[in-house]
Amino acid sequence: MKYFKVILAALAVVALLVACGPKLPQAEVDAATKAFEEAKAAKAEAYAPNEYKAASDAYNKLQDNLKAKDYGKTKDLADALLNASNKAKEAAKASMEAAKAGVAKLADEITALLPDVKVQLGKAEKAGARAKIDVKPIKELVNSVEKTVSDAKASSDYLDAKNKLTTLKEDLEKAQKALNDAGYKK
Q: Is the pTM of this model over 0.85?
């Protein structure tokens, strides 16, 4: 009977600890996870890599905590994930807008540069065999400009479009310099 009372008391203590232990803050976890998914959907990994890394790290910490079932810190970790995810989403949105504006600006700069390069190229083509420059690669470049600019403007991947237009502008400027150096001025 003596052992029975000890066991009964021990079970009562265990039951009390389980009942009073920290509970999973499911609403906070769900909100934080949703915010992280929204940051991913906003392409934060590409447009705001530093902020996305912070959110991803916070997500991993929360997942580790949930696996360990140590719910005492779960609310704080969920709040940290929510904040980091919201920052990543907002930073991605701002970066995307900046990249979109960059695409428009580069497209305008290329469009303004193209007529001069065409004039110079025309002069070099008229020189024919006497030309001091190989006009074929420049002609191919000039012929590809309008399609590349049009594709970039239509793209929703603004970082890729901006990179392509940056490369195109640099190539056009090099072609223009090569034509200038060969004596075919505007």
A: no
